[in-house]
Design a protein that fits this description.
homodimer; mainly alpha; 0% strand; elongated; DNA-binding
DNA sequence: TAGAAAATTGTACATTCATACAAAAAACTA
DNA sequence: TAGTTTTTTGTATGAATGTACAATTTTCTA
């Protein structure tokens, strides 16, 4: 999987610098405002440097989205690690999908533009799929033993969709706070679970 | 509000022709593949005609999104009209947001690209806002009397977000069927309502 | 330190696309 | 029908932008 190309130390540094610069520009100007010139300027380099370290703009974008997903995932994983009870893992999972200080319109819009780009860019679509698969897997393992397998799929689907929907509303400028979003998802889960399952879970709350 | 510019019959025809052509191209190629040349070609006209009937490409796009929203809204309204009981109006509202034969990846992707574009285009953002406001208003009136005003906001927010999330999943290539989507939203609503409210509603089911 | 390799710069080129416009065609009118 | 207005065409132009590349600077090495 990992490429066996040996890289100079400088090369690695420049590559990550450019990817991070791209990420910053992306957060501020969105995908449409993400030009090679701006990326290089943000990184404090010359416009031509990009072609030297990357095959093209797409490779930078790819690295950037991966960078972004890794950040998000690390947040979720970190929160999951500190959780002891199943209910806490639950909350951690939901909260992890609304990172503190990151549930903001510009971030939401940036994420949204990647979703839209995934429609015509197979690589983005792949990253998207991987990301969703991981989210679903996390949700599934959190629900395992509480729900019968049959309703597991529809539950993870709904919870995932609800999370995405909250981000979408945020992107659209709806004044949804982080707490509201989290509360809504948690409320949905509570509403979905059957009485006994809920009781056994809330006992650990 | 409505412009008082008097228009030739031909002018009206051409304008709607172009808007509809734009809509078709948009559905097939997404917002990024929506060029003036393609629009005119789809309408069977010369590339230059667009500038004659419209101020620019943005005006066509604006008309197209409005056209699209109107179609969606008409579907919802039509379904609402035939509904007698409150519960039926409810189902109509949910189903109306997943039009038959329209809950498909390419439509979802098209819609998504407009959402993304709304981030940088104020006019799109405005249309977006109007659309959401109307959806919320419809949801609110359907819930009126069943929920106390306090929880009304969070309920409409969650239901709206869930609907959007389903579309997003569809755009991402997730194999969500129309029935699954509708079922999920309805299930969410049932889970949200308190026991008595739900009972009174389901009595009309 | 001198020469080679690596890294960086700035620019030039090609492409895409929206828009402007002059010319041609069609429709209308007196 | 002759002249005028409306409509349509095809092309030209300019702006934005990704990418290639020759020239220059920096770093490494023997």
């Amino acid at each position: 999987m990992a490429e066996k190309v040996k890289r100079t130390r400088i090369e690695d540094i420049r590559r990550t610098e450019l990817v991070r610069a791209a990420h910053r520009v992306f957060m501020e100007h969105g995908l449409s405002g993400l030009t090679t010139a701006r990326i290089c300027a943000e990184a404090g380099m010359s416009p031509g440097i990009l072609a030297y370290y990357f095959k093209g703009k797409d490779e930078v974008l790819f690295g950037m989205v991966r960078h972004n997903n890794r950040i998000l995932m690390e947040d979720v994983i970190a929160k999951l690690k500190t959780a002891k009870t199943r209910w806490q893992r639950f909350i951690a999972l939901v909260e992890g999908n609304f990172p503190e200080n990151a549930f903001e319109p510009n971030v939401a819009r940036a994420w949204l533009s990647v979703c839209a780009a995934a429609a015509s860019n197979p690589q983005f679509a792949l990253l998207q799929t991987i990301f969703y698969r991981r989210l679903n897997s996390n949700l599934a393992s959190a629900f395992a033993g509480v729900l019968e397998p049959k309703s597991l799929r529809e539950t993870t689907l709904a919870v995932g969709a609800l999370i995405d929907g909250m981000w979408l509303r945020k992107a659209a400028g709806g004044d949804v706070s982080r707490d509201e979003a989290i509360l809504a998802v948690v409320a949905h889960i509570k509403g979905t679970l059957t009485g006994e399952a809920l009781a056994s879970l809330r006992a650990q709350e």
